[in-house]
């Protein structure tokens, strides 16, 4: 399959990779190309900007979750109908899980045989930039470093000096530059970049990004580079069924400004396996819609909307009723927080929540957990039987306090370097809530079991009527 593609990587985090990748996506989209965006790794926030820039939903490419074959399948499936695929990398080009390349931008580039455009923060650098680029070029010969994009350049004279040194001494073409324009930086908050769904006047911001980019970047050469990518390596279908299965359950998915951390391919897999996805809002809807057979509450930023969430008593009460009727409820991270008796914000103020778990969620000024982990399921639940091994990701600034010691725990999590598992999450009847983010495309059998449990509940609900 011939798919023009380009992976935008960087020497390190903070080099401006997300800003420039989003600007490139927007520039090509405005030039009339159908641009399919992707993000390497488990990030939920950057894809929101990609989607806003292109009008096509961004997908996550993660070799830790999906493996090489899975990444190729997800990529090829999403690339259908696109003129150009732009993949934003994660961290530095070669940074992966621990000291390995697993999950890195480089591993994804090799899996897809994608040309790499390296973003270099050139502030306060001259000839040393050539040494830096040369090191990245030689570190792994299987990674095709096809060009360099210089960021935070001091001006035209600085750019000419950098370009000459890099092309002559590192042997990599320099395809453009962006000056020191702090006004184009994307906004941040305690978990990282501000979600695109909260960004006011995002269209105007994207226009500024494109205008700045077009001043010094050779978009035509970038397009040629992407079109020079080889045929996509063939892979066998392993994740999605050959044809979507008939709908058999109505699955509510809470998606709004407070809860919007979902992997698009995970949602589409649930749909392909027989779930009719019904999006609901814990902020705006007065109650859960009728005749739901299950509920999925993903992560997000509930701590930024506590007053509004607590004030929506009708929605909270309908959730309690559905839970007590036995409806399967699966919650990740922000969803776990929402299901607690209360959330205590950064200033120590407490807001009542759903109360399906008796504990209180407390926000902290410092990050509690970040990174990939492996999980062993401790108790049979709506996703998996006890003993199942799963892979996931954590990223949170909160912890749960006041839970009874004998309350059934969901997982033992094994983080990088851990020999003993850390207890996480809770199981309560047909409820499973945890800080662990799962990618359903990494474990289709878990998605299938969840839908099966929803179908069991539907059967009971219909018979009860």
UniProtKB/TrEMBL annotation:
Q: Which Pfam families match?
A: CbiA, GATase_3
Q: Which domain of life is it from?
A: Bacteria
Tell me, what is one Gene Ontology molecular-function annotation carried by this entry? cobyrinic acid a,c-diamide synthase activity
Q: Which residues form the CobQ/CobB/MinD/ParA nucleotide binding domain?
A: 7-190
According to its UniProt record, the EC number is: 6.3.5.11
Kindly give the PROSITE patterns that the UniProt entry links to this protein: GATASE_COBBQ
Record field: catalytic activity: cob(II)yrinate + 2 L-glutamine + 2 ATP + 2 H2O = cob(II)yrinate a,c diamide + 2 L-glutamate + 2 ADP + 2 phosphate + 2 H(+)
Does the UniProt entry include the keyword Magnesium? yes
What keywords are annotated for this sequence in UniProt? ATP-binding, Cobalamin biosynthesis, Glutamine amidotransferase, Ligase, Magnesium, Nucleotide-binding
Q: Where is the signal peptide?
A: none
Q: Which pathway is it part of?
A: Cofactor biosynthesis; adenosylcobalamin biosynthesis; cob(II)yrinate a,c-diamide from sirohydrochlorin (anaerobic route): step 10/10
The active site annotation covers 333
Question: Per its database record, what is this protein's job?
Answer: Catalyzes the ATP-dependent amidation of the two carboxylate groups at positions a and c of cobyrinate, using either L-glutamine or ammonia as the nitrogen source.
Relay the domain remarks.
Answer: Comprises of two domains. The C-terminal domain contains the binding site for glutamine and catalyzes the hydrolysis of this substrate to glutamate and ammonia. The N-terminal domain is anticipated to bind ATP and cobyrinate and catalyzes the ultimate synthesis of the diamide product. The ammonia produced via the glutaminase domain is probably translocated to the adjacent domain via a molecular tunnel, where it reacts with an activated intermediate.
> What is this protein called in UniProt?
Cobyrinate a,c-diamide synthase
Q: Which species expresses this protein natively?
A: Desulfofundulus kuznetsovii (strain DSM 6115 / VKM B-1805 / 17) (Desulfotomaculum kuznetsovii)
Q: Which gene encodes it?
A: cbiA
């Amino acid at each position: 399959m011939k798919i023009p593609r380009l992976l935008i990587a960087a020497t390190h985090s903070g080099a401006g990779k997300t800003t420039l990748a989003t600007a490139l996506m927007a520039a090509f989209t405005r030039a009339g190309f159908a641009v399919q965006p992707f993000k390497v790794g488990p990030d939920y926030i950057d894809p929101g900007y990609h989607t806003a820039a292109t009008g096509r939903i961004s997908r996550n490419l993660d070799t830790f979750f999906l493996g090489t074959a899975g990444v190729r399948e997800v990529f090829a499936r999403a690339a259908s109908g696109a003129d150009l695929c732009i993949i934003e990398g994660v961290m530095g080009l070669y940074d992966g899980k621990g000291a390995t390349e697993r999950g890195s931008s480089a591993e994804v580039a090799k899996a897809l045989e994608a040309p790499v455009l390296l973003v270099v923060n050139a502030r306060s650098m001259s000839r040393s930039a050539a040494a830096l680029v040369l090191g990245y070029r030689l570190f792994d010969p299987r990674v095709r470093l096809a060009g360099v994009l210089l960021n935070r350049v001091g001006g035209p004279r600085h750019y000419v000096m950098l370009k000459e040194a890099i092309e002559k001494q590192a042997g990599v073409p320099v395809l453009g530059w962006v000056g020191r324009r702090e006004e184009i930086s994307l906004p941040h908050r305690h978990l990282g970049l501000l979600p695109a769904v909260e960004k006011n006047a995002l269209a105007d911001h994207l226009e500024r990004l494109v205008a700045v980019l077009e001043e010094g970047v050779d978009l035509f050469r970038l397009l040629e580079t992407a079109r020079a990518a080889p045929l996509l390596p063939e892979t066998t279908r392993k994740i999605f069924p050959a044809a979507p299965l008939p709908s058999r359950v109505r699955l509510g998915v809470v998606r709004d400004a407070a809860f919007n951390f979902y992997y698009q391919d995970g949602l589409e897999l649930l749909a392909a396996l027989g779930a009719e996805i019904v999006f609901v809002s814990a902020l705006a809807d007065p109650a859960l819609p009728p005749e739901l057979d299950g509920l999925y509450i993903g992560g997000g930023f509930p701590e930024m909307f506590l007053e509004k969430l607590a004030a929506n008593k009708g929605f909270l009460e309908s959730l309690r009723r559905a839970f007590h009727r036995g409806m399967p409820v699966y919650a990740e991270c922000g969803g776990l927080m929402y299901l607690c008796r209360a959330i205590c914000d950064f200033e120590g103020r407490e807001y009542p929540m759903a109360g399906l778990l008796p504990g209180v969620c407390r926000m902290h000024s410092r990050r509690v957990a970040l990174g990939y982990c492996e999980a062993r399921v401790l108790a049979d639940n709506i996703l998996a039987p006890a003993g199942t091994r799963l892979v996931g990701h954590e990223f949170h600034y909160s912890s749960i306090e006041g839970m009874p010691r004998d309350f059934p725990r969901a997982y033992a999590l094994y983080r990088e370097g851990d020999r003993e598992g850390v207890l996480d999450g809770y199981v309560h009847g047909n409820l499973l809530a945890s800080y662990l983010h799962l990618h359903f495309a990494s474990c289709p059998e878990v998605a299938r079991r969840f839908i099966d449990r929803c179908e069991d509940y539907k059967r009971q609900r219909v018979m009860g009527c």
